[in-house]
Amino acid sequence: MKILWRRGESAVNDLVADLPEGEALAYNSVLTTIRILEQKGYVEHRQEGRAFVYRPCIAEQEASRSEVRHMLSRFFGDSREQLVLSLLGDEEISPEELERLKDVIRKSAPDAQELEAADRAGHNVDREEGVR
Predict the structure, then answer these.
(1) Distance, CA of 91 to CA of 77 (rounded, Å)
(2) CA nearest 41: which of 29, 15, 68, 59?
(3) Does 127 fall in a domain?
């Protein structure tokens, strides 16, 4: 999909040729994958001469969100907490990744902006009672 998003409309031969070095796949493997993606609604095709030309019909960010929601439901019982705990238990996570996750969590809290503004202004902040 990343190749299709980057290239736009492409025939299977073009996709095979554009695969990164060391990740070569057979034409039939790419064709099978593209057909599955088409069945899922991520790709559509039109005929150009004898070849089919495929194009993405879903934006990369939308596809990513959809797949994460599917994985969340299928493997984590719709528990975002379990998903994050699983990621945090991964021994390959770097300190930088952990710091970015902390920042995102801090900023996504419903009252995060109010609390940050109060912090900057030097006010006492109590999460239960709000800004004082």
Answers:
(1) 23
(2) 59
(3) no
pLDDT tens digits for 57-66? 999 999 999 8
Q: How far is CA 72 from CA 49, 58, 62, 86, 108, in A?
A: 42, 20, 15, 11, 19
Q: What is the Cα–Cα distance from 107 to 115, expressed in whole angstroms?
A: 10
Q: Is residue 13 part of a domain?
A: yes
The packing angle between helices 95-108 and 112-121, to 10°, is 100
| Beta carbons within 10 angstroms of residue 1's beta carbon | 17
Question: Is residue 87 over pLDDT 50?
Answer: yes
C-alpha torsion sign, points 71, 5, 103, 93: positive
Res. 81 pLDDT band, cuts 50 70 90: confident
User: pTM to 2 decimals?
Assistant: 0.62
**Pick the residue with more confidence: 30 or 87?**
30
Report if residue 129 sits inside a domain.
no
Instruction: Identify whether 130 is part of a domain.
Output: no
Which tokens go with 106?
Answer: 């801090």
Same domain for 67 and 81, yes or no, is yes
